[in-house]
Amino acid sequence: MMQEKEIFKSLFIKALRTTKGKQINNATDADAFVALSTVLAEWIQEKNTSGNKQEPVKQVYYFSMEFLIGSLLATHLNYLGVNEIVESGLEELGFSLEDIKPYEHDPGLGNGGLGRLAACFLDSFASLGLVGNGVGLRYRYGLFNQRLEDGKQFELPDNWLGEGYMWEYRKPTEAIDVSFGGDINTLVQNDKLQFQLVNAETVRAVPYDVPIVGYQTETVNTLRLWAAEPILDQVLMKAKLEGYAENMLAYQRRLEELTDFLYPDDSTEEGRILRLKQEYFLVSAGIQSILKEYEKRQLSWSDLPRFLCFHINDTHPAFLIPELMRILVDEKDLSWEESWEITTQSVSYTNHTTLQEALETWPENWVKTFLPRIYMILVEMNERFCRQMWEKYPGDFDRIAELALIADGQVKMAHVSIVGSHSINGVAKLHTELLKKKEMRLFYQAFPERFINKTNGISHRRWLMLANPSLSQLITEAIGEEWLQSPKKLTKLLPFQTDSIFLEKLQQVKHHNKQLLANYVKQEVGILLNPHAIFDVQVKRIHGYKRQLLNIIHIIHLYREIKNNPMKPFAPRVFIFSGKAAPGYHFAKQIIQLIDTVSKVVNQDSDVKDKLQVVFLENFSNQLAEKIIPAADVSEQLSTATKEASGTGNMKMMMNGALTLGTMDGANIELFDQVGKANIYPFGLSAQDVLHYQQSNEYTAKDLYHSDDRIRYALDQLIIPGDFVKDEAVFKDIYHALLTYNDEYFVLKDFDDYAKQQRKISNDYQERNIWNQKSLINIAYSGRFSSDDTIASYAADIWKLE
Ligand code: 26Q
Questions:
Q1: What pLDDT digit, counting tens, does each position of 657-714 carry?
Q2: Which of 117, 178, 290, 408 has CA 20 to 30 A from 683's CA?
Q3: What is the pTM of this model?
Q4: In a 10 Å sphere around its CB, with 0-12 CB exposed, 13-18 middle and 19+ buried, how is residue 697 labelled?
Q5: Does ligand 1 lie within 6 Å of residue 142's CB atom?
Q6: What spacing in Å lies between the alpha carbon of 13 and ligand 1's midpoint?
Q7: Which CATH number applies to 460-712+744-785: 3.10.290.10, 3.40.50.300, 3.40.50.2000, 3.40.50.720?
């Protein structure tokens, strides 16, 4: 221990010199961050070579357009088991680890749930000792930084690479060329049709490898992120042919631009072609480089599915399917049938949405123009598939038209994904059932054996062990360390529900976390939160279906209640919001503005002070989530039933002892089944109810406006100048969405039930001992939502890893 610490100190001093040209006495915390990361990176590399598996185990490649991996410094210190020696070594050198940590930039290479899920999965692969590698894009700018000015969201570029990224390795010798556009020449060679791509524009894909360390295992996997670069010869050639040297730079820039930005989920028209190219760039570079490695092993192509599997995270990487076909048929000279067998046996697909607007389609002519050979392959896939369906359902034109991969001038990526893979999974039980019975009904009828549920999970190491050290310590004191490796062992906490001393400690931990968050809010926003209040949290992307609107309308109602009944006892509440709206999603931006407006009115009113506070924390991120979630008493999961495929924030908050106030949607249903109805606050329409109201005309939002005085009051506040608005135009879209357009997300319909459960929460919280019990039960059953379990289940049922 002593000796290791001394070794660390000398490595650290040396790293300070070589990376920053500094000595201990003139180094800043930012320099120290770089030096510390350098030492850790070196230790990871030592592991990487020693822990490499020699035997040919089956490998998974997880293809995703998003990986929201979060900061890695704390993870590495902890997973490598060197936290103590580093902390005390740094202290002896005059540095504090806690001061150094904030210098790490959190790479925002994802939008939300889907990207964070991919990151939790990588954590679980490595911690379970499985070979599971990520394949993604190295966006020059991650998801925008959010700033609010007068409640309006502004988007600033996220220059996450500004100071360099400490955990990546550029591997230029492993670069791959990816081609776009051009023409296809057809020729006959050795009695076989050959397709030759000419006049294409080629971009170089350079990989950057981020090692992924497992928790106390020898496994180090890789997240390989691809970046676009120009190919100098091609640039020179073009300059020569076209003769205007001054445009060379612009041309070079255009090629690099490909991986400049991550597209938000509601992207605008001009970005879409670039997004299409990004998707192909990811899969083409990814699969080419994997197959190159595979060829070195001198195995047969037909054996490929025994050694490799390719998982696509939603349809965004679905061009993997025709790209793999292209390589096998065109470059490896396999027959279509053999290639098809290999492809479908090695590819599997997760669906993350049932929202119609989020189901990806690409205009046929774009695919034809930018990916001509891929287009031909898709056409062939479509013809063969339609023929197969014709044999199965002779004469059923309508069915086949609906199943087709290409129809109405659009390539349907979900259809391509289903037909080209052997497994399709939803991300929670309800969601998978909806896929089978509704969205993908016809495919389910055709291939029932392909559909399977895999409920999402979260890394209990990141979201409990690292994010909430006080709670982790309390748990470990009570039940030992076993839960870190086997999270289901958290149920050993159950007997403590009758231990009032333990429950008291649990309450103190929560209070401590609330105090920490309050300190942060004070420092960032200048608002002094009351840590004795109920911390009620809704943090996630801002979206109509997630119904932040229901929450804020209810807050307007509460405000009025308190104002009208100043003497009535009221359980103090702090409402905390955070989340980004897609830049082009005007309605979501108005919701942010409404939250901001309400928060200003409420926080400045001394009549409600100590009873009601509302804050919107800017620029939600992994790092911010790690501060907020451990402090949550109430977890708001308000999606309109059927709309949230799973949700994972719900699991994170449960694991940190918050009680869920949620609809029976996505994984909330499974949380409910785990903890039982006494330990959760369900409300609102069920999935069935929602489907019913969508099909009938039995819901009229205006009726509720007229019959429910609370609703009328709150909605009137949106357009009548008064406490909240000076100008009736600001929130008129919200007002009209609810009344004129009949409340697509059933906000008003669920209001009464929501308000009831909120009152129940206020009452229950008064009985702190009982509340603490409920909180403990939530923590105890949260192990079922560890991504270790999810990944073990994918490994057994989908990827068939040993
Ligand atoms: C598509 C086309 C063009 C540009 C962007 C996109 C795009 C990007 C991101 C479409 C969707 C997304 C993100 C989806 C997402 O995060 N879904 C969430 O996935 C979680 C993990 O499974 C679930 O828990 C959430 O319920 C689901 O909303």
A1: 999 999 999 999 999 999 999 999 999 999 999 999 999 989 999 999 999 999 999 9
A2: 117
A3: 0.97
A4: exposed
A5: no
A6: 44
A7: 3.40.50.2000
